[in-house]
User: Fold this.
Amino acid sequence: MCLNVKTKLISPNMLAYVLILHAILPISSAAENYRPIFFTDIESGEDSGLIYKKEPSENIKVFEAQTQQDIFTLADAAQGPFKPHGIPGIAIFDYDNDGDLDLYISNGPGKSNSLFSNQLKEYGEISFIDVAEEAGVNAIDQDSSGVCVGDIDNDGDRDLFVLGNNDNNIMFENNGDGSFKDISEISQLNSGNKTSSTCSMGDIDNDGLLDIAIANSFNFDNSFAIVLEPFSLNQHNQLFRNLNEGRFKDVSKKSGLTSLTEFSPEAKNSATITWSIGLVDFDMDGDLDIIHSDDNGAIPFLKYGGIDRGFIRIFQNDGSGNFTDITRNSNTNKPGAWMGLAFGDLNSDGRLDIFSSNVGDYMLTNAPNTPYELGDQASRWFFADEKGFFEDPGVGDLVATPFGWGAGIFDFDNDSDLDIIFYGGLSIPIYVDASNGGVILENQEGKGIFIKNDNALRNTVDHSRRNTQSLAIGDLNNDGFDDIVSVSNFDMAADVPLLPYPVQYGGPFDESALFSPTFTPIGPGEFVWSGLTLEKGSLTVELNSASNGNSSISVSTVGTVNILKHSKANRDGVGAVITVKTANSKTIRPIVAGASYASQDSSILTFGLGSENRASVEVLWPGGTKNRLYRVHKNEHVSFPEIPCSYDGQWNNFFEYYSCVKNSLNKLEKEGIIKNNKRRFLRSAVLAFFEYKSSL
Assistant:
């Protein structure tokens, strides 16, 4: 029930106290002094320490043999391997709890994965040392793909989960001393030998333990699942519930994750080709839902006489870890080759929106017999409404968009609205798509209207020559601006000619929409190798110039399950939704432990303030508790603890709420979770309570 606080319960001193607290609300500052942001790649720097080359998968030998055939046919293409260069993944996280963000980059068989330890805290400037071998996470025998991280045992350090490309998965438990232990056999997460690309951690049943969702596709030994067979070769996605003590249980079927709708009766119980999956509270009701992006492949859409199978699927949680496919009702049943996923409030209406990368509008124009209309497979965004319906507004003045894999939503220029980034390329194998030279879509005043930013990536690497797969975001040098990490599975040399696609749309991406032929046609359905040779894939770390004068705050969350009674959030607060408000803006971002293709952003979120000096921060925790902190100053980092006393809870009176908050903060101070800011959190909790009551 709702509580009505009676005036007689509040003393004159308390009323005066609350009025004083209103003085700490966000205020506006001077006008914005805008200067452009640009990114610089440090990977090639002599002192960066970032030594990485992507080793291809074993089936690259089959593809290389095909290039030597006298005649190469479309049948050969279907019979040949898919993605023979593999799926490199990225995780940005602080593995050693030293206060800076480190990088884990996966690699192919026989090549060590890399754990790049950031030396920012040690030496005052950013550089890296690869410590994968000594940390015990090199996974040299695995054809590694996607990566996700999280504190699966709530012991205060982040554990590492590495997926396999037609290989077993590996769970590494963090020992807390800079080393890891392989607990794959104990965890029961290593079974299946599926082709997995993306994993996401989150607590599906609000028991305080991180569960794991995995996106699966098909065996890459051939491409039949892409071009010929819509269902029978696909592998179901998986969901593992955390049983504690490093053990997990497969609840994929029981949870409803494998019960997909929108299929014809003959395809009942079938699986899809899923590239990305995210555990995210899309409807902001306090429990984590599952969203995954599926690929229609080369099979035509239903409207062209084919089959629709590739949707952005939304599985709504009933609060106990049971899921229902609501894709149709959500309006995300739009067929496409959906790939990377990212989440955030793009149009400033207080709800979480979705961006997903796609095959784009250019790539299929090289296949004249493939039916296609402009916009069919555009990389694009969907706006949520209050009922969970997602509007597909199209891409507006962008007209057409390019191919993409890895995706992110972040405020690259700290102007207080969320922008979109996506990279990607693909070999199919007749030609290599190079339509994406690195894309940042800049939000216009938080309205969800986007333009192509032509400056930010102008002086960094040429991403059109990188077959980029994975992308992740985080502030690597602690300057208050987010940086970009990406990895490709192969590159093309600077002297390889890139050709324009045959169709131009009159949009800003036309000029950079390019491709390179792998095989040259010599007759109907017959080709010979063009001579194109590919270099091993590369890692880029693009640092933000932080040069436009805008300010920001950063927020990390600390769940207090097993520390405070009634707390439900896991130690890192994965799954929380954070709202930052200034006098003139509101920004909402969720903490998602994996969603961008094969990768995971930092769980420490950066929020741009523009020219504002301070803001309020609200956290919606897994389980539904809401806490708020006022008067967060620009350039401040907030470590926000879960206080299991929601300001909008069903309290008998104010003093019951106040006692809950005060006792919780006393315990958190005693446990060392908060230091020197107990009074600040208490004052903010009081103000949040009365502001909420006054809004009823």
